Amino acid sequence: MEALNVEIKQAGYSENTIIIHDIHFKVNPGELVGLIGPNGAGKSTIIKSILELLPHVTGTVFRPEKHRYAYIPEHPVYYEELTLWEHIEMAKAINGLEGSDYDKQAEELLALFRLTDEKHHFPTSFSKGMQQKLMIIIAILIKPELYIVDEPFIGLDPKAIKDLLMIFEQERKRGAAILMSTHVLDTAERICDRFLLINHGDMIAQGTLADVRQQSGVDGSLLDCFYELMEITS
């Protein structure tokens, strides 16, 4: 059974403000799918549709009912009155994740992302990258079947990016599915199984890199294919 099945005819902020059209795709367990497109292409609208945050959606978004999902937003969201560790404790309580394994893994992730010394500090004092690491840590700790990730590399230092990619690979081996929106096409080309290329609210290509090359008529990089498809569809 797929981890995510999206069949959206149209979606937007009202019937008169339609942003995306005819968006159809699946994400399977253990698969990393890259959502690719320029600013304003409709990537965030697709993600909001999946998260049921849009007032107007015609179509269906299917996730297995008992499957847990985690959303890592582009702009970190946190409670100003809670410390880093209190955020981690809150995630444990909300998701019913009791036991010492949770705390142990939380400590390991704090060490991995070099946040141990900030454990009892407030995220308001953190850099954008540190706040993003908090979002990532909480998402990993709840062990979701599906990750929905929006521009995860923005603000992260090179080591943190490498650590995140390692974790993504581990999570895929566990069977988790990942839908990732990103502008970093060279990294996406290297790690994604398939791609969803979006422009002006439409799906202009999807599939493996070989599929995208065939659809674009360009035997080059993902970036080369994407620019050719943008030219064709503009």
- Rg to the nearest angstrom? 18 Å
Strand content: 25-35%
Strand arrangement in the largest pleated sheet: 5-6-7-3-8-9
Which residues form runs of ≥5 with pLDDT under 50? none
Helix content: 25-40%
Largest sheet: 6 strands, mixed
CATH topology of the largest domain: Rossmann fold
Structural description of this entry:
This protein is α/β, with parallel strands linked by helices. It has two domains: 4-67 and 145-233, Rossmann fold (3-Layer(aba) Sandwich), CATH 3.40.50; 80-143. It has eight helices and nine strands. The chain has helices spanning 43-50, 84-94, 100-112, 128-141, 158-174, 185-191, 209-216, 222-233; strands at 4-14, 17-27, 32-36, 56-62, 69-72, 146-150, 177-181, 194-199, 202-207. The protein has a six-stranded mixed beta sheet, with helices on both faces. The longest helix has 17 residues, at 158-174. It is globular, with a radius of gyration of 18 Å.
Question: Topology, pairings included?
Answer:
Elements: E1 4-14, E2 17-27, E3 32-36, H1 43-50, E4 56-62, E5 69-72, H2 84-94, H3 100-112, H4 128-141, E6 146-150, H5 158-174, E7 177-181, H6 185-191, E8 194-199, E9 202-207, H7 209-216, H8 222-233
Parallel strand pairs: 3-7, 3-8, 5-6, 6-7
Antiparallel strand pairs: 1-2, 1-4, 8-9
Helix pairs in contact: 2-4, 7-8
